[in-house]
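Good morning,

Attaching, inline, the backbone tokens for the sequence recovery test we're adding to the shared suite. The designed sequence is right after.
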């Protein structure tokens, strides 16, 4: 009973031995700097596509929980909140998604998940390593929250200010452009 209580007080952890161990070819020169952890939010209405959330049939809403670092050797070790359907995106140094996990995973309190790589081939074992992955030489990383307005996603906080700053002056009522021949927008300050 005491062990069960101790596990319930701990977050789940995920260890990825090498993100580059994959069943696909990474684009030439790809360097993965971090993983974005995304929660697939449960749909609370029974009929499919009511309300419609995305472009695909029966798309669930998503929420960015945060990012975690990927070490130079491709390893990552991090905590995730238990009890949520999550998936990972491999990000380059510019924070751009290079690859998204094709499924979701769900961890229980105190559970530890170890992956050989990102979409590692299922019909072979991982290559032996000469040393312990860099990420496993330190405590697990905590999620670094994304920009304000991403969890939960907030159109008024995240999108509307950008439109107000760069678009509405020309494309809004009394604006200089008609939406087709509008002058080029100046780059953000």
């Amino acid at each position: 009973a005491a062990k069960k209580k101790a596990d319930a007080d701990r977050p789940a952890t995920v260890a990825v031995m090498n993100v580059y161990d994959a069943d696909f070819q990474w684009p030439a020169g790809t360097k993965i700097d971090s993983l974005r952890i995304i929660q697939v939010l449960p749909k609370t209405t029974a009929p499919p596509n009511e309300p419609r959330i995305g472009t695909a049939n029966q798309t669930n809403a998503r929420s960015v929980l945060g990012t975690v670092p990927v070490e130079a050797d491709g390893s990552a070790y991090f905590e995730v909140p238990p009890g949520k359907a999550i998936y990972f995106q491999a990000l380059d140094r510019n924070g751009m998604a290079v690859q998204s996990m094709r499924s979701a995973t769900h961890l229980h309190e105190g559970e530890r998940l170890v992956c050989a790589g990102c979409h590692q081939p299922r019909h072979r074992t991982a290559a032996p390593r000469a040393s312990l992955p860099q990420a496993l030489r330190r405590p697990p990383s905590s999620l670094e929250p994304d920009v304000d307005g991403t969890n939960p996603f907030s159109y008024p906080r995240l999108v509307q200010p950008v439109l107000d700053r760069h678009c509405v002056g020309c494309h809004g009522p009394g604006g200089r452009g008609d939406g087709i021949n509008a002058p080029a927008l100046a780059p953000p300050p």
